[in-house]
Design goal:
Layout lengths: L6 E6 L5 H15 L5 E4 L8 H14 L4 E6 L5 H13 L4 E5 L20 H16 L11 E6 L15 H13 L3 E4 L5 H13 L6 E2 L1 E2 L5 H11 L5 H8 L4 H21 L4 E5 L4 H10 L11
Parallel strand pairs: 1-2, 1-9, 2-3, 3-4, 4-5, 5-6, 6-7, 8-9
The structure holds flavin-adenine dinucleotide.
């Protein structure tokens, strides 16, 4: 999916409350107005959001001109279940999938595959390629394939005693396996330092990964959200960033500091050669659009907040 110039894309999740449901069409419209390359729609653990993710995908595909990527996980699903889900996604016009293993359901410490299911995202990538071949036939030559498949990548966020980013070699091996299974590009987990991204990409290239690796960018404007994300992802938030946000004298100043940090991150990853930016919006257009505007990448349409 990444093109010649840096792509801009936005992650959305299916609404979790009636208020979220009411507000989401406005958010989608505001984000679509800056002409992104794609939206991606998350998929809840155990397929919990299968229906609501599908509804949001359909909304994007029918109400905007923007392609929509369906996240899909292997959690709690047999191979047959996944085959059915993929075919239904194709039926509603989805041609872009982010293939994930998924996290264990809440309360379960270890990830356990469904007895007739998959252990890694690579197997899901292989299934997607098999269904693609059955539905669309085998492609001629090196032209674009009917289905574009993204996978996850993990730059991490720790540093050694000399301040050098630590790259987990198993995540690089996992990405290589996903490439060999037929993935087209990768989108990263949250990270906070462009050096983490650059080190991960360098390690991936050294291991033979040639996939474009699109950095996932979080607007760094909300310290509560960053703390929650640290718990969820295990990626440590730099204490200096949290202190700067916590100690801001006003909410406006906190927001301004968060925007400045986000723009530094965006400029840092683009300088490191990032092929695009995938912005985690948390279903709110304002911070995502402000980051892009401040970074000089997109204008801010009026009334996005
Ligand atoms: P895999 O790549 O299969 O890796 C799983 C584990 O196996 C890892 O520990 C990996 O290191 C190891 N592994 C796999 N292959 C190899 C190999 N060949 N050699 C050595 N080790 C290997 N979760 C959701 O539930 N819903 C979502 O919508 C969602 N969206 C996400 C979007 C992005 C951009 C990202 C980065 C993550 C998202 N997640 C989502 C979270 C994701 O499901 C979890 O991080 C999950 O724990 C791992 O998924 P994966 O696809 O990276 O798994």
């Amino acid at each position: 999916m990444p093109a010649d110039s840096p792509t801009i894309s936005f992650e959305l999740y299916p609404p979790r409350t009636p208020k979220g449901e009411r507000e989401l069409p406005g958010t989608v419209a505001a984000l679509a107005a800056v002409d992104p390359d794609f939206f991606s729609v998350t998929y809840g653990a155990s397929g919990r959001t299968r229906e609501s993710s599908g509804a949001l995908l359909e909304h994007i595909l029918t109400r905007t001109d923007v392609p929509a990527i369906a996240h899909l996980t292997c959690v709690g699903a047999s191979e047959g279940d996944l085959d059915g889900v993929v075919r239904r996604l194709l039926d509603i016009g989805v041609r872009d999938v982010l293939a994930l293993r998924g996290d264990p359901p809440e309360g379960e410490p270890d990830w356990r595959p469904h007895p007739q299911g998959y252990t890694t995202a690579s197997e899901l990538v292989q299934l997607l390629r098999r269904v693609e071949a059955q539905r669309f036939g085998t492609p001629d030559g090196d032209g674009p394939r009917p289905l574009s498949i993204a996978v996850a990548a993990y730059p991490g966020g720790t540093f050694d005693a000399d301040g050098v980013p630590v790259v987990d070699p198993t995540t690089v091996q996992a990405l290589l396996a996903k490439q060999e299974a037929g993935a087209d590009y990768a989108i990263t987990q949250v990270f906070y330092d462009p050096a983490s991204y650059a080190a991960f990409v360098a390690a991936a290239r050294a291991a033979g990964v040639h996939l474009p690796i699109v950095p996932g960018i979080i607007p760094l404007t909300d310290p509560r959200r960053l703390r929650r994300l640290e718990t969820l992802t295990g990626v440590p938030v730099p204490p200096a960033l949290l202190a700067a946000l916590d100690e801001a004298p006003t909410p406006e100043e906190r927001y301004r500091r968060g925007l400045t940090a986000s723009v530094d991150l965006v400029h840092g990853v683009l300088a490191a050669g990032a092929p695009g930016l995938h912005v985690y919006t948390f279903n709110t257009a304002g911070p995502a659009l402000d980051v892009l505007a401040e970074a000089g990448l997109r204008p801010v349409p009026a009334d996005t907040r």
